[in-house]
């Protein structure tokens, strides 16, 4: 499957990436190659295999509702690109979230 | 809304499952509207690479309680899914939610409408995690946003109704009914102001008689039941005006501005929903033992709807009073305990004192049942005194006022304040006679047909009695003496 330029632009928008025209071309090519490679799986006959959400046979384990200590705030914010007022500082967000 | 269009409204409700720890990690759940930011965060809820989520059992149990109370079919195997989108309040870049196979579906609840009772279908109930909190700042000419992750990963329940509500009143009653159930089963306090319960109506209109669905708009940012009603009313009017003017409703998410009383488009078209849901690879399916689900079902308390029916039947309450009393579990519990403790007072008298004078005091002071300084025993004693004629209504209110502020025993308060009702017929007759003698003109006018003057004369007698006379006995004596005078 080959991705169109519009596909690449849509994916870039969803990932909040700004791509140059040259990058759209290059990444489009690379993404298409990856999809084609994985696309080999489509050739497999899965007619008798039921749809599954997980290949792990195990079921989820549940944990008791017991709070444990959180991590020190300084450690949490240590790797943040920017911080202020003991919070992560990010570029201004205008509209509401999803 | 004019009679040309029918509102078609569904509700999407998010309720925080008030557990002690978060949904997928052991971080404590703290009140994210107050206090220090980022003090209840760990690598899991901060979205650090390589971290694995582990499901909180209590959150699943709480979700099941609600789903069962809403008469849902429980999926013994449900699947968690990744809902992907980029927003700074979502550190992982995706929210763990449920999509194709939710925890529960196909339920219903009963609500009241102007046309009578309505059964509202519940489409689905699923578990997900909350996001962090953003604060928008403008400081020294610089604009930026701050991210607090205390709320990130707090367990959330999403409840989706079918679009079967057809009036603002139905929307309000459905929201109240859901809140009441959440509180009854003990998973959520129903606090909209703190965002512990968030109600998002999706609203469309269609010509009366049509069975097609119109294009819907979804409203967010409603922090109170009043906002819910105002925003719904506003949006219905906006859509009607738009359609009447030949325009078309566009599908969008609107944010309610409570100050201005208007809605504003929240999300631009270019980032329209494209969440790329897929099964969460870090969480195997959630498989529930049927025995556990049955145990939770058996452990559910009597729910508001059933309790209301029982109150009407057993205590002879009017539907309205029964509704008011059962809306909050604590109120209904206090009521039943008071009825059980009372010796003379009947169930109706107790209902009147509870929903009348006591609710009045509570609303005025902003106090809830848990904050009362007295219990069922004292309320029953007070109602007994009233029912036995030991204290009149005015005196009873005074006693209640004292109980409300200081607590104590009603009988001692009546004694200490000299509020015992005077029913002694000799004493009452003397007062009535004195009042007639000193107000001859009013008495004559009353006999000539000016009926309202009876209330004036009654007031004069009550004044003489310091408000403590038995009102019914005073009226009787007054009428008896006046009619004798007329002959």
Describe this structure in a few short sentences:
Chain A is mostly helical and 98 residues long. Chain A is 35% helix and 8% strand. In chain A, strands 2-3 form a two-stranded antiparallel sheet.
Describe this entry's structure for a reader.
- The complex is a heterodimer of chains A (98) and B (487).
- Chain A is mainly alpha-helical and 98 residues long.
- Chain A contains 3 helices and 3 strands.
- Chain A has a domain at 5-42: Orthogonal Bundle (Histone, subunit A), CATH 1.10.20.
- In chain A, strand 2 and strand 3 form a beta hairpin.
- In chain A, helix 1 packs across helix 2 (21-38).
- Chain A is flat.
- The two termini of chain A are 30 Å apart.
- Chain B has 487 residues and is of the alpha+beta class.
- Helices cover 40% and strands 21% of the residues of chain B.
- In chain B, the strands form 4 sheets. In chain B, strands 3-7-8-11-1-12-13-14-15 form a 9-stranded mixed sheet. Chain B has a 3-stranded antiparallel sheet with strand order 6-5-16, with no helix packed on it.
- In chain B, strand 7 (104-113) and strand 8 (116-129) form a beta hairpin.
- Chains A and B meet through helix 1, strand 1, helix 3 and strand 3 of A and strand 2, helix 1, strand 9, strand 10 and strand 17 of B.
List the helices and strands and how they pair.
The complex is a heterodimer of chains A (98) and B (487).
Chain A: H1 5-14, H2 21-38, E1 62-63, H3 73-78, E2 83-84, E3 87-90
Antiparallel strand pairs in A: 2-3
Helix pairs in contact in A: 1-2
Chain B: E1 5-16, E2 55-56, H1 57-69, E3 73-74, E4 77-78, E5 80-84, E6 94-98, E7 104-113, E8 116-129, E9 133-139, E10 142-148, E11 155-161, H2 168-184, E12 197-207, E13 217-220, H3 225-244, E14 252-257, E15 262-265, E16 278-279, E17 286-287, H4 290-298, H5 304-315, H6 319-326, H7 329-341, H8 347-365, H9 376-387, H10 393-406, H11 410-416, H12 425-438, H13 440-447, H14 453-464, H15 471-486
Parallel strand pairs in B: 13-14
Antiparallel strand pairs in B: 1-11, 1-12, 3-7, 4-17, 5-6, 5-16, 7-8, 8-11, 9-10, 12-13, 14-15
Helix pairs in contact in B: 2-3, 5-6, 7-9, 9-10, 12-14, 12-15, 13-14, 14-15
């Amino acid at each position: 499957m080959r991705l169109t330029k519009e596909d690449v632009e849509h994916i870039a928008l969803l990932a909040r990436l700004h791509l140059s025209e040259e990058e759209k071309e290059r990444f489009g090519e690379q993404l298409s190659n990856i999809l084609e490679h994985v696309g080999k799986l489509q050739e497999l006959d899965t007619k008798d295999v039921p749809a599954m959400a997980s290949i792990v046979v195990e079921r989820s384990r549940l944990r008791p509702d017991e709070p444990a200590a959180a991590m020190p705030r300084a450690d949490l914010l240590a790797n943040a690109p920017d911080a202020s007022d003991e919070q992560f500082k990010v570029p201004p967000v205008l509209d509401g979230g999803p | 809304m004019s009679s040309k269009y029918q509102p078609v409204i569904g509700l999407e409700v998010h309720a925080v499952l008030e557990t002690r720890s978060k949904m997928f990690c052991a971080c404590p759940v703290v009140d994210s509207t107050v206090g220090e930011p980022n003090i209840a965060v760990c690598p899991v809820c901060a979205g650090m690479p390589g971290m694995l989520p582990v499901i909180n059992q209590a959150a699943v149990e709480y979700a099941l309680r609600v789903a069962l109370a809403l008469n849902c079919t429980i999926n013994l195997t449900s699947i968690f899914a990744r809902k992907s989108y980029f927003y700074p309040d979502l550190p992982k870049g995706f929210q763990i939610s449920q999509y194709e196979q939710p925890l529960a579906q196909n339920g219903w609840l009963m609500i009241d409408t102007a046309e009578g009772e309505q059964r509202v279908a519940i489409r689905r109930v699923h578990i997900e995690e909350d996001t962090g909190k953003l604060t928008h700042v403008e400081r020294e000419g610089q604009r930026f946003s701050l991210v607090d992750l205390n709320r990130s990963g707090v367990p959330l329940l999403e409840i989706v109704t079918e679009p079967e509500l057809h009036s603002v009143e139905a929307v309000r009653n459905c929201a109240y009914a859901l809140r009441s159930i959440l509180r009854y089963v003990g998973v959520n306090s129903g606090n909209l102001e703190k965002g512990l319960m968030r109600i998002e109506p999706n609203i469309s209109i269609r010509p009366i008689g049509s069975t097609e669905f119109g294009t819907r708009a979804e409203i967010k940012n409603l922090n109170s039941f009043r906002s819910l009603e105002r925003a719904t009313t506003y949006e219905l009017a906006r859509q009607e005006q738009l359609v009447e003017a030949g325009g078309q409703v566009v599908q969008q998410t609107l944010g309610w501005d409570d100050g201005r009383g208007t809605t504003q488009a929240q999300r631009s078209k270019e980032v329209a929903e494209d969440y790329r849901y897929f099964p969460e690879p870090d969480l195997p399916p959630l498989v529930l033992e049927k025995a556990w689900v049955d145990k939770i079902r058996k452990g559910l308390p009597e729910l508001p709807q059933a309790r209301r029916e029982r109150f009407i039947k057993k205590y002879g309450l009017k539907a309205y009073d029964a509704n008011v009393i059962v809306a909050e579990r604590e109120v209904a519990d206090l009521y039943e305990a008071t009825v059980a403790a009372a010796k003379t007072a009947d169930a109706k008298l107790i209902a009147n004192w509870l929903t009348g004078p006591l609710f009045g005091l509570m609303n005025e002071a902003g106090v809830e049942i848990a904050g009362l300084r007295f219990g069922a025993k004292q309320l029953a004693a007070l109602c007994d005194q009233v029912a036995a004629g030991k204290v009149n209504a005015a005196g009873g209110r005074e006693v209640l006022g004292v109980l409300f502020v200081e607590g104590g025993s009603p009988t001692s308060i009546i004694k200490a304040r000299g509020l015992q009702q005077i029913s002694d017929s000799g004493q009452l007759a003397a007062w009535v006679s004195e009042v007639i003698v000193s107000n001859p003109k009013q008495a004559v006018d009353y006999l000539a047909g000016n009926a309202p003057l009876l209330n004036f004369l009654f007031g004069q007698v009550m004044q003489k009695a310091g408000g403590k006379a038995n009102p019914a006995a005073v009226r009787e004596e007054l009428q008896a003496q006046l009619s004798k005078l007329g002959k």
